[in-house]
Amino acid sequence: MTGLVLALAWIAGVAAGLLPVDTGWAAPLLGGAALVAGWIAGSGNARLVALALATGLFGLAHARVVWSDGPPDPLAGLSGEVSLVGRVADAPTLQGSRVAFPMIVSRVEWPGPGRDIEASSRASVLVWAVGADVEYGDLVAVRGRLAAPRSRPGYPEAELLARRGISHVIDFASVRLREKGQAGAWVLLGRLRSTLEGALRSSLPEPHASLAAGIVLGARSSTPPELRSALVATGTSHIVAVSGFNVLVVAGTLGYIVIRLIGRPWALAPMLLTVWAYTLLVGAPPSGIRAALMVSLAFLAQAVGRLPDPITTLTMTGAVMVGWDPRLLLDVGFQLSVAATAGLILLAGPLAERLLALPRSLREPLAATIAAQLAALPIILGTFHTLSLVTPIANVLVNPALPLVMLFGGLLAALAPLPGVGELLAWTTWGLVSWLLVAIEWSASLPSAVLYTGRPPSWFALAWYGMLALWAAAGSGDVRTVIGYRPTLRVGLGVAVALVPATAVLAAPSGHTAIVSVLDVGEPAAFVRAPSGRTVLLGGAASPSQLTASVAERLALWERGLHLVVATRPTDLQRVALAETLRKYPAQLVLGVSSTDGALGQSASSRRGGGDTPGAPALEAGQVIDLGGGVRVEIVDVRVYDDVPAVDVQVIVGDVAVWLPSAGPPSGHWREAAAADRRVVLRLPAGSEGWLRAAPKVPWLAVIPETPPRLVPREVGTALLLDQRTYGDVEVVADGAGVNLRTARCPGGTQCPVAPPMSVDGSEEP
Fold first, then answer.
1. Which residues contact 618 (CB under 8 A, 6 or more apart)?
2. 632-654 burial, b for 16+ CB within 10 Å, e for fewer?
3. Do 80-182 and 514-759 share a fold?
4. How crowded is residue 161: how many other Cβ atoms within 10 Å of its Cβ?
5. pLDDT for 291-302, tens place per residue?
6. How far apart are CA 201 and CA 25, in angstroms?
7. 754: exposed, middle or buried (C-beta count within 10 Å: 0-12, 13-18, 19+)?
8. Which end of the chain is more exposed for a tag (fewer CB within 10 A), N or C?
9. Are 480 and 486 in contact, with CB atoms under 8 Å apart?
10. Across the strands, what pairs with 515?
11. How much is the pTM?
12. d(CA 636, CA 647)
């Protein structure tokens, strides 16, 4: 019990240390004081509380030290076209038609005179290139566009890369090999992994090869999009990620063989060696390391004659890992792995007791699946905005075959070149993987297999995990021994159950606030929420995932659709992105121009007239859509640019206007919009540096460029210049008394005010 409490305190302290609050020397000094107090307190609960407080404060101090700024970034100040030299720091991964690999920079050759970079600075960049044939350890010269990583809803790239120590990204790179890498241990492991994956892909057809490679080796870069979507819809994505299940299969299979060959006393060393060799072979992801540590601790406990406690083992493993790298707490994969494992340990048993009517072959896997899903639910809803309703069915069908796929798939990867043996293993593996594919595709095809939700509030996660913790505690003999009052636990459980829906309701959007969010999706687009509750999407994006995630982030947990969508630039890519967004979040009305017939036109015709959504069946210049509460959408112009229709839109909130011009030079109709003498928030169209020179002048202007700020004309004299690569989404918030401007990112944290509040009549508030 003491180890569990101290491990939890350490993790909580490390998590607190990641918050943007400078504690200075306060944390270690207070930790030392708490440690002394615990020593003086002697034994009992007082001492445990003091030790837990000290452990948490030391964890906070540790995280602040690790998280603190290291040496100056030698690439700071560089952007745009660069030429760098460095070594490939990890095995390249194939992402569609492009190859991605991290590189540790050793020299900047351009711009300016060449200069070497100290190895101690560990300046790392992520390189995206087409057709680059490089391996781990190779010395390469890279030329391309350097930029800071850019987080967007659904994909926090900057945070993910920061955890790997990567501070910059190079897109559209050309890569030249300077020198082949030395054959070190990591290079040999990477080559072995590539060889084994190649054997699977040459022996099996698609999508069997990708699924088998994912299950056996954790390879996910080449998974077909259709298969990836089916895995997400059925909640079975974990089978293609290295997790505790994979490590347990390897450990169990090896243990069964080794114990019978050399006996249990001598089996510990080869079992530990094999578990860690497999973990390193598959790339040592956080979930794999966590599983390997837990299995290793369990083996060691058995070797010394102790019965391991799973939840204590999990907590101490997590404490060790976040102590080594505090940023793991920000890794979604690590969060899902730990949450699902805790759910299996704490909830699977009580759930199985409530499913006694089912046969054991169904009861145990069903209870395990539901337990893992319940434990990971807030993370899944908050990150992916999906809830699979067929996960229990899919996992019951899939799980029995996974150990066999790992066994025969692993043998096939190793023995594929052997004549006769390779063919037999290939046919066996093909049959097993075919069953998995049939089960996954059938489950995904069931009606309402997946629900697409909005984002739950942060308090929802706290209430949910409090409810699960009290539920697990109510069924724990150890907890009841310490607390002694089971009725108290039941009352607490009832309160937690009531708080779960209450947190979602209390976080509902206010009926007195209007919000216009200029989305960071690469093209002019905005999400509007009127005080009436109506939700509107204006514009689109080239990326379906970015647009869908941006919409989901702004919907309440229970909202599953939009009231209105206005398509402003129906290019092929934007039509695909809007169609995917509408598939997940249907709109009552879709407005566009003639080119939106087809995928978007079907959505519009099937929903036109539904509900009380305002609007008209077609767009034309001068059209006004009143959303209520002083918020309206105005169609400034409908034109054709580069043979594609272009719709210019503005959103009026009080005396503030949000301009969303489409591609091309500014329409003359913008002069009429400027005549209203409103304050303007302008989202520049991509690649239109000259737009502002020809645009009408307004009394106050905030410019949101997609391109770097240096490309925006200097003579504009804007009050604010907000580069979306830096600031992300920009929100205009009107609460009836005034209008505020805030951004999703800034040096001080998230949702940062970036301008003085503006009153509804357009004047700045004192």
1. 591, 593
2. bbbbbbbbeeeebbbbbbbbbbb
3. no
4. 20
5. 888 888 877 877
6. 55
7. middle
8. C
9. yes
10. 529, 733
11. 0.80
12. 8
User: Are 57 and 31 contacting, i.e. CB atoms less than 8 angstroms apart?
Assistant: yes
Structure tokens given for 418: 């052997």
Evaluate if residue 303 carries a pLDDT over 60.
yes
Q: Which CATH class is domain 514-759?
A: alpha beta
501-521: pLDDT as tens digits: 776 666 666 667 889 999 988
Beta strand pairing call for 386-388 and 450-452: antiparallel
> What does the H/E/C string look like for 753-766?
ECCCCEECCCCECC
* Residue 284 contacts residue 319 (beta carbons within 8 Å): no
Q: How many residues does the chain have?
A: 766
Give per-residue pLDDT as tens, 724-766. Answer: 777 888 888 887 667 888 888 775 555 566 655 544 444 444 3
Integer Cα distance of 58 and 28 in angstroms = 6
Q: Is 751 left (phi over 0), alpha (psi -120 to 50) or beta?
A: left
- Distance of alpha carbon 488 from alpha carbon 482, whole angstroms: 13
Q: Where are the domains of the chain?
A: 2-67, 80-182, 194-235+390-453, 458-506, 514-759
What would the 3-class secondary structure string for 253-316 be?
A: HHHHHHHHHHCHHHCHHHHHHHHHHHHHHCCCCHHHHHHHHHHHHHHHHHHCCCCCCHHHHHHH
CATH topology of domain 80-182: OB fold (Dihydrolipoamide Acetyltransferase, E2P) (2.40.50)
